[in-house]
Write a structure and sequence with these properties.
By secondary structure, this protein is α/β, with parallel strands linked by helices. It has a single domain, classed as TIM Barrel, CATH 3.20.20. It is 36% helix and 26% strand. The protein is built from eleven helices and twelve strands. It is globular.
């Protein structure tokens, strides 16, 4: 049986890890390279780094930081934000990242998914999506509209339809980050995650809302997620990676134990 992956997320602003609720009232928490090394040592399976203002500000990803992280960890990590071209993707991978996450860029230019998959392999291309619950089921049959630019703009894309299209274009994984749950630590948006997981045949990662190990267990069992992203619950020190994995293992969920 495949083990479930636990993926700490480090949102980056001005070279500092930051965390807020729905990208509001963010607080700086620490150095991304130091935090990445600590989470790696604790036994996380992967890492993901998002430059949360790069796309909105129209600036490139910090390649030097990507290279520093690659030297500090021994696990795969993904990078998103400030990636605009195949050349940017190549530079990120050459700097040591394993995967590239595209979100706003993919909505604006869906062909970048297929171009990236052809150039580097589908396993390298992750679609990040930030869906928002909406009432208009005629325009959005799933009940969720895709947003871009760090939740700042709503698109006319239905979340499930967009997930299917991204898979068809060559994405190898989809991260589903609920706008409504982000940073709340009240649990993942299970209905949303489950809808996407049922609609595609590639791994789906639950994101947004984790506050307790039970929330991860629900994402894996009720929503059939392949992996779960966590942030605030470990950034604050309330939980550690070993404690979360021990709780999941005790609940019968297969995880990679490294201690």
């Amino acid at each position: 049986m495949l083990t479930k992956r636990i993926i700490p997320c480090l949102d980056i602003r001005d070279r500092r890890v930051t965390k807020g609720v729905r990208f509001q009232n963010n607080v700086a928490l620490g150095d991304p390279v130091e935090m990445a090394a600590r989470y790696c040592a604790e036994g996380c399976d992967e890492l993901v780094f998002y430059d949360i203002t790069a796309s909105a500000e129209g600036r490139p990803i910090d390649i030097a930081m990507v290279a520093e992280v690659a030297r500090a960890v021994r696990i795969p990590f993904a990078v998103g934000g400030g990636i605009a071209t195949l050349g940017d993707m190549s530079r990120v991978l050459l700097a040591g990242a394993e995967k590239i996450s595209v979100n706003t860029l993919a909505v604006r230019n869906p062909d970048i998914i297929s171009q990236g998959a052809r150039a580097f392999g589908s396993q390298c291309i992750v679609l990040g999506m930030d869906p928002l619950a909406v009432e208009d089921r005629r325009a959005f049959p799933s009940g969720y509209a895709v947003t871009v630019k760090g939740f700042r703009e709503r698109t006319d894309l239905d979340a499930v339809a967009w997930a299917r299209r991204a898979e068809d274009l060559g994405a190898g994984e989809i991260v589903v980050n609920s706008v409504d749950a982000d940073g709340t630590r009240a649990g993942y948006e299970l209905r949303l995650t489950g809808l996407v997981a049922a609609a595609v045949g590639i791994p789906v990662v639950a994101s947004g809302g984790a506050g307790r190990p039970e929330h991860l267990a629900e994402a894996f069992t009720a929503a059939h997620a392949d992996a779960a992203i966590i942030a605030g619950m470990i950034h604050t020190g309330e939980y550690s990676i070993p404690r979360i994995k021990a709780a999941l293992s005790a609940a019968g969920i297969p995880v990679r134990m490294t201690w």
